[in-house]
Amino acid sequence: MTIHLGAFLNAGVQGTAGWRHPDAAPGFLTAAHYVRIAQVLEQGLFDFAFVPDALSVPRSLGDSFAPAVKWGSGTPRLDPVPVITVMAAVTTHLGVAATVSTGYHEPYNVAREFATIDHLTGGRSGWNVVTSFQDAEAQNFGQAKLPPRPQRYARAEEFLEVTTRLWDSWSDDAIVADKESGVFGRPDEVEGIDHDGEHFRVQGPLSVPRPPQGYPVIIQAGASESGRDFAARWADVIFCSHESLESAVAFYADVKARAAAHGRDPDQLLILPAATPVIGRDAQHALAKHEAFADLVSVEAGLSRLAYHVNVDLTAYDVDGPLPTLEEVGVEGHYREVVEFAEREKLTVGQIGRWYGARTEGRLIGSAADIADTIQQWVDAGAADGFVIQATHVPGSFDEFVAEVVPELQRRGLFRTEYEGTTLRENLGLARPERGEWKARRK
Amino acid sequence: MTIHLGAFLNAGVQGTAGWRHPDAAPGFLTAAHYVRIAQVLEQGLFDFAFVPDALSVPRSLGDSFAPAVKWGSGTPRLDPVPVITVMAAVTTHLGVAATVSTGYHEPYNVAREFATIDHLTGGRSGWNVVTSFQDAEAQNFGQAKLPPRPQRYARAEEFLEVTTRLWDSWSDDAIVADKESGVFGRPDEVEGIDHDGEHFRVQGPLSVPRPPQGYPVIIQAGASESGRDFAARWADVIFCSHESLESAVAFYADVKARAAAHGRDPDQLLILPAATPVIGRDAQHALAKHEAFADLVSVEAGLSRLAYHVNVDLTAYDVDGPLPTLEEVGVEGHYREVVEFAEREKLTVGQIGRWYGARTEGRLIGSAADIADTIQQWVDAGAADGFVIQATHVPGSFDEFVAEVVPELQRRGLFRTEYEGTTLRENLGLARPERGEWKARRK
């Protein structure tokens, strides 16, 4: 089998250490920056670029925005939708996926936005569905606090039902555009949805015809129980992060089984863990590169990053003591990883901070051959259908991966040597949803 | 003095007759279509492209979506934001403006979207602020009916205050990005807004640094009393439509005086009426071209268009009788124009329909020299600082205007021969707002 590759790209600075990297490009607010990255990803035959998001400047240590601004930790963040549109405008095969929260948008607008991008890109769009995770986000939208997870997922559930129904509100051949007769469309092929639910009342139809892909590719990353159930039904691609092969194998088996239990073909749900390659001439050279990268982060910068990821102000805790158990954290997956690692290594809060600031997801440190070995091992073990490649810095990390690891994967028959199709679904090997597919995916 | 030119471009079909034009390009859902148009507009040194919008498939005759779909009347409509992003990605000087409603979005999201586009385009973005005008739009967002105009403008007022304050939440030099020290930003140059109003509670700061233009160019088109007051304070550009030079002169004087009364320099508020050129070898040839265009519309298609513009189902009225007075119409400017024309010409509802279907705003029918004459006359009379050029069909209308009228305007010294600046504000001759400008513009 062959693997699929996404590229994880912040629309702004890359992590707390990434912008400080000596080779990091400075123009992270300019179109040229994203054009440059899109081009190397397409040259490397990546399936898609994936832009995460959050709807606030993170408020972290001391319940303040200051640390995030001071250290470039989680801010700035451009709106990912125009960023992926620029990346798509200069490529012809690269898929482009943006994160949009179901918590603080309207489903009509989101359905329309992605339907539009799917048309403009000829079917290369993806939507990473998130429910948000910080109080600071809630506070930009009239709420005092982030709603509890079950409430966020209940809204997301209804949100997905409305958006998929809106994408289905035009049949694939509703437009005739016959200049001779003057008939533009077939009214009986366009219908309202008349949705009247707990969170939304939406009449429809969408003002945009059915997307080329039927539905844009739906990506989800929730690691919680609610997240897994949601993703097993709605997602085409699951993005996850695992510190060990064992936990990745268990997650893979669990989610594929959930998909099958919902009547889906498990092969039609791709699981792509995060991987951050640091590539050297040999293992030692790569380790030295990683160490130099980790040295770019201060304890405070790292704790600031952790504080906003878990949505808890950590200044209450002694930096020389252990991290107490936190309740109701923001990103559960990240928190679990921290607890596991800190207990194993007996780390203090301060040490956790330094580690977390330079933490990358799924570190792959070694030569290109070493990295290809690990990728092959994970795929053979049933842990992954491919990976979402993260960068210590841009564009350098992607340049190196495309120049060194991609050819190695191709030599082993693990990765494509040309794009198989024109839409993102075609390249991912995913079927195009028939009109009405939403009925099978909803709860 | 020289004039400014915008280009009015539906992201979808151009009017009810436009898609039927023999030369109309068919690919109105593809990026290539908008790329092609962006390139000719930049070649013609246009200040900006302007994409209107509405958040529904129009429901018109018989309270049904069917006529809009059948005649291609107001549908489909792509989301304008990705469309202008594509147009900006392939140009270097053309400004790009998208319509986004204050009625059915969140100010944090809208502020962020335009700040992002302004960064990605190096300061070429504009936001056309609308409050929506159809019940069918309200019904896609949980409302049974469009709220009354005063309520819509009260929300818009607060919306603009929040978005401009969010754009000001970072100072222009908040980012230092010093790789050596590890200091990314200056926390005391970034502040929340802690807005707590009638419609919105927004903490801020925005997660995007201050836009290159300070504020993206703000465009407004309201012709009502509330619209004029709002525009005189907030707008940089007013887009309007007038059937006669007299009404245009009166409107121009009124709005400039309102701006001055609010303490603004009236020259810093540009008034650009709509103009739809139909260019012939001579007047007779142009008239024949216009007639052929008007013949493309049926009575029903035209009435469908009028019905959704005024937000009233017109099937209750006898097609052979006069149009009764309508209360609480959608677009007041359009309605007033219809009434004026129908009374003058003694038209029945059916005749109004046929006329309205092919109605264009500010028809300029003649040779290139005739059209330049009228443009000059309007500018000299104090009716306009330039025009927003509308197309009977695309890309043909813009191709012809750029090839024939632009050189004529240049010969007369009425239009630029190269772009003056790099940002849209620079090309429009508008000052860059200082941080805090919102205080002077709010009510």
Automatic annotation (TrEMBL), chains A, B:
InterPro entries xref list: Diverse_substr_monoxygenases, Luciferase-like_dom, Luciferase-like_sf, NTA_MOA
Pfam family, one: Bac_luciferase
Keywords tagged on the record: Flavoprotein, FMN, Monooxygenase, Oxidoreductase
Any one Gene Ontology molecular-function term assigned to this protein's record: monooxygenase activity
All copies of domain Luciferase-like, residue ranges: 29-383
Family recorded in the similarity comment: Belongs to the NtaA/SnaA/DszA monooxygenase family.
Database matches in PANTHER family: ALKANESULFONATE MONOOXYGENASE-RELATED (PTHR30011), C2H2 FINGER DOMAIN TRANSCRIPTION FACTOR (EUROFUNG)-RELATED (PTHR30011:SF16)
Protein name: Monooxygenase
